[in-house]
Amino acid sequence: MKVEVRLTTLERLDEILGLGVDAVSIGQEGCAAKLPGTDLLRTAAERIRIAGARAGVVLPAAWQRTAAQLVDAAALLAGDGPLTLTVNDLGTLATLATEPVRGRELAAGLALFPGRPHDAGEAPRGPLEAAVYEDAFLQELESLGVRILEAEAGAEVAVRSGWQVRRLADVTPLAWARSCPTARHHQLAVPDCVTTCDTPTALTANQRWQLGHGHREPVPVADRPSQVPLTVFGNAVYARSTAVLPAGADVVIDARFHTPQALAERVSALRPQAVAYL
């Protein structure tokens, strides 16, 4: 098992480097405005390499105004040394695939999950049905140079030769909004809104959008016991995961959901040979 810790900013980098983890990645899936500047990322990646860990950068899903900026930053970062680039939209992935770089590996990010199964029937259901990655989907990613997949702990992933799967521990991402609810809540615009991205908002769903009829409706009584507490960070919505990690799985831990002491204990439990920071 290899353990990776994910940061969205650089404030906790010293703490994470003291944990003796296998990899440290910086970034998140949802918003380019949140990503640290390229010079800061280059310095951080070099510090991670010097510490003996694999360095990674998570490129958020690219909207029209940020696509070229993300690709340019990725090319600059990959030129410095070994690096994992986790990509969260097919457009960025297709562009990067045309320019292979020695020492760079591409990973399909959490925002590329293909969806959650449901039968559109009347049986009670909650939001945590496991995502399913079928072989045809992995084959499409492989044609773009990807053989690394980030997935939630309970995701069903087809077995495909030569692939690595890195599982997100403890939480499950459910959605990313193009219009950021956190920015709207604090009445801030880019770039001032980034100061609020890591301030969590707790909520529970009491309504849902009925696609078949094009309107909102209350969550049916039968489904209400299945509704789980949700946490919003920036434009992303997460639920706590109770799924059991597959034995020996490579793991990604999102540091936002753990205090320093709790994170050190979690890393130590998953990878006992790591140097715990207490």
What is the total tally of β strands?
16
Order of helices and strands: EHEHEHEHEEHEEEEHEEEEEEH
Kindly report the spatial arrangement of strands forming the biggest sheet.
5-4-3-2-1-16-9-7
- Principal-axes geometry comes out as globular
Estimated helix fraction:
10-25%
Average pLDDT reading: 89
Describe this structure in words.
The chain is α/β, with parallel strands linked by helices and about 280 residues long. Helix content is about 25%, strand content about 25%. It contains 7 helices and 16 strands. It has helices at about 15, 40-50, 65-80, 90-95, 135-140, 180-185, 260-270, and strands at about 5, 25, 55-60, 85, 105-110, 130-135, 150, 155, 165-170, 170-175, 200-205, 205-210, 215-220, 230-235, 235-240, 250-255. It has an 8-stranded parallel beta sheet. Strands 10-15-14-11 form a 4-stranded antiparallel beta sheet, with no helix packed on it. The longest helix is centred in the first third of the chain and has 13 residues, at about 40-50. The radius of gyration is 19 Å and the shape is globular. The two termini are about 20 Å apart. The mean pLDDT is about 90.
